[in-house]
Amino acid sequence: MNTLKIILFSLSAVSSYAALLYKLFSMRRSWRDPAYIVLMTTLILQCVTFTLGALSLSIGSLFGIPNLAILILHLAAVAYCISAQLLLMLWANPPSEIRAQIRAWIVSGAVLFVVLTVLFSIGNKPGTPGTAFAVGSKDPVILTYLLLFIISQAVPCVTIYLQCLPYARSTSRVWLRRTLRTLAVGAVILFLYCATRAVNIVSPALGWHLGTWAIAPSVFSALGIVIVSFGLTMPSWGEHVSSVARWQRNYRSYRALYPLWHSLYESSPGIALEPPAEGDTDRRWSDLHYRLHRRVIEIRDGWRALRPYMDRADTPNGDQAMAEARKIRQALEAKTSGVTPAENQDSGAFDDHDAKTFAAEVAWLTQVSEAYAKLA
């Protein structure tokens, strides 16, 4: 059982150190930001807590005081929970608006430090095994100490969960919203750790024998901390994920627009601000956002240049994109042959497809280009 607990504590510690190292890369540009300072403090305390969790049972005494490593573990865990609470508040509010709340949490933590230390000093009699503080005991002082400690862990779980969801609904920042929801999930799992740990704590006093179920708190703790570590770094790497996804989406659109653009360019070379190089395979990767805008503009210019050759009597029906592709193909053939329809579309807008946003414009032109490629 102890071996499994050490493995689970180690997993929590590894995820904590990974999150800490990742956030260290932001230090140079963020070191004056209060939220960043609190975030780093939270991650450091998280690392300390779970490192001590993995080592505390094997450390009989520290500085000559038996079980002192367990007290330091518990105090670090209290500080970690308070720091996480402050971090969430700073993410959602300017520091000037929450100074009183920050002060209240810090004072509460200081008082709790003193109370836990006093109870530990009273209960830590000579010969008291480390398992009494790590698991549970019939001793009323140790029992009070452990229950007070676990309550100090459960309260921030509840407050963080209750704050995360409203904050997530109110923020316009996509990755902050995802972060808050992830932290809410982590808070729920860590509350389950607190609940199952409370059962473990009182089981010796009540004469319960939990057997293999006694490992449940460690499982919930490891799972919750991995999720929290993932969530705490999400605002940093999330934007990069979005950028990569946006780049891939733009590249697919840029490539999909090529068949239509190439035919229009061959018909009206003047539409291109920068004519393609000889043998250009259209696989350039740089300045993609700019080049996608240029491609859309050039397609619209080429389309407009074809309007004198588009038959107004040819009314699209059915698949709009395919109908527009056929009209463009017929107009290109008419321009090549020099035949102008009697009723052309030399005036007016682009029918019903003057898109309201650039993304909608790209989506529509991509459909037309893909239909055109099928015709070709």
TrEMBL record:
Q: Which UniProt keywords apply?
A: Membrane, Transmembrane, Transmembrane helix
Q: Transmembrane stretches, by residue range?
A: 6-25, 37-63, 69-92, 104-122, 142-162, 183-206, 212-232
Please report the stretch or stretches of sequence annotated as the DUF6545 domain.
246-373
Q: What protein is this chain from?
A: MAB_1171c family putative transporter
